[in-house]
From TrEMBL:
InterPro entries: COMT-like, COMT_C, COMT_dimerisation, SAM-dependent_MTases_sf, WH-like_DNA-bd_sf, WH_DNA-bd_sf. Keywords: Methyltransferase, S-adenosyl-L-methionine, Transferase. It comes from Cereibacter ovatus. It holds the Pfam family Dimerisation. Residues 50-125 form the O-methyltransferase dimerisation domain. GO terms for molecular function: O-methyltransferase activity; protein dimerization activity. GO terms for biological process: methylation. This is Hydroxyneurosporene-O-methyltransferase. The keyword S-adenosyl-L-methionine applies. Residues 141-353 form the O-methyltransferase C-terminal domain.
């Protein structure tokens, strides 16, 4: 009975007994002879090995993306030799990659030995921005090659230099860097816009300003969904340079204005009754977020609304994707962190916002949303 320890409520903790049994090799061997326990144990064993092998799975996916193998088989089944020639690999190495891709259900192996696109692979190609996201993961993987040194702060992450605008580099003019930044932001914004607009109703909003909105991908989605809303875009001058052409192409001619500036140095333009921050807060430190929220508060009229959407930590109930992938990603950027909805709500309340509402996303790794109001003016 020593395994039954007093719990905080004064009873005994069966969970501690479960942990002790799960950690006993003798119990594991006994459980293998009991059907119900055997199924449970093997399921846990599979999940544990999936964690162990996770990095290799990611590398297989990266190679498939970088070599464009999924695109090669999209028209129909291909032989190993044909794919090897197109990708510049030896047939045995291509076989290795294809077998791995099939094991991950991105590809499927045909009876004649050729390989075709699987349902999961087709879905991968259809998700806006997913290829671009995977395509830059080599930077993140390098930064996490020594995770202990990374956690101790003994490394100099390359990812911090991949996103120069997060540091407020208003003078950056390198066209290649600007194009890379804008392209990845635009391509990865589609799903975020879809989920945000499912979660947050913008009916009644007259003019929406998107702060940190890049070339206007989110505002383009807003304009299509709400034909009467006027939109404003605020971001660094070098980033918003391509926005007018994009917004015109989206059919927003006569309904948009574009403002170049840095919220670190400049007050936000006024005139919007709602301001959105889409995947912005988790790029920045608490001090920077406080400054940004204070500028949003000052720019909004009484009863004006702030809309925040981004992947959020699970907080007290850690979430598999956001508390691993995004938490470590934002830590590698060195400028921000992945916060829970509770933490964001506290930051909003500290700046004077009220009526804070949280909208958990159906895909937390894409976005959850929070809205709040600037209070009505006191008579």
């Amino acid at each position: 009975m020593s395994a039954l320890r007093p719990s905080a409520s004064g009873g005994f903790s069966l969970s501690r007994l479960g942990l002790r049994l799960a950690g006993s090799r003798r119990f594991q061997l006994i459980a293998e002879r009991i059907p119900l326990l055997r199924r449970f144990g093997r399921r846990e064993g599979d999940a544990l090995f999936d964690i162990v092998a996770g990095f290799v799975h990611s590398q297989v996916l990266y190679a498939l993306v970088d070599l464009r193998v999924l695109h090669m088989v999209q028209p129909g089944p291909q032989t190993v030799a044909a794919l090897a020639a197109k990708a510049g690999l030896s047939p045995d190495r291509m076989q290795l990659l294809l077998q791995g891709g099939a094991a991950l259900k991105l590809l499927k192996r045909c009876r004649d030995g050729r390989f075709d696109l699987a349902t999961r692979g087709a879905a991968f190609l259809a998700v806006p921005g997913l290829e671009a996201m995977v395509g830059h993961h080599h930077v993140l993987y390098r930064d996490l090659s020594d995770p202990v040194a990374f956690l101790k702060g003994e490394t100099d992450p390359d990812l911090a230099r991949f996103w120069p605008y997060v540091f407020g580099a208003t003078g950056a003019t390198d066209p290649e860097v600007t194009a890379k930044y804008s392209r990845l932001m635009t391509e990865s914004q589609g799903l975020v816009a879809e989920d945000t607009l499912r979660l947050v109703d913008l009916m009644g909003v007259r003019r929406l300003m998107d702060v940190g909105g890049g070339a206007g991908a989110f505002l383009g989605a807003v304009g299509r969904a709400y034909p009467l809303i006027e939109v404003m875009l605020f971001d660094l001058p070098v980033v918003v340079a391509a926005a007018p052409a994009r917004l015109e192409a989206e059919g927003l001619g006569g309904r948009f204005t574009v403002h170049g500036g840095s919220f670190r140095d400049d007050p936000l333009p006024k005139g919007a009754d709602a301001i959105s921050l889409i995947r912005v807060l988790f790029d920045h430190s608490d001090d920077t977020v406080k400054l940004l929220l204070s500028r949003v508060y000052d720019a909004l009229p009484p009863d004006g609304r702030i809309i925040i959407a981004e992947p959020m930590s699970g907080g007290a109930a850690p979430h598999r994707e956001t508390d691993t992938y995004f938490a470590f990603y934002t830590a590698a950027m060195r400028t921000g962190r992945t916060r829970s909805a509770v933490e964001i709500g506290e930051l909003l309340a500290a700046q004077g916002f009220t009526g804070i509402k949280t909208f958990p996303g159906p895909r937390p790794y894409v976005a959850s949303a929070i809205t709040a109001l600037r209070p009505s003016a006191v008579a």
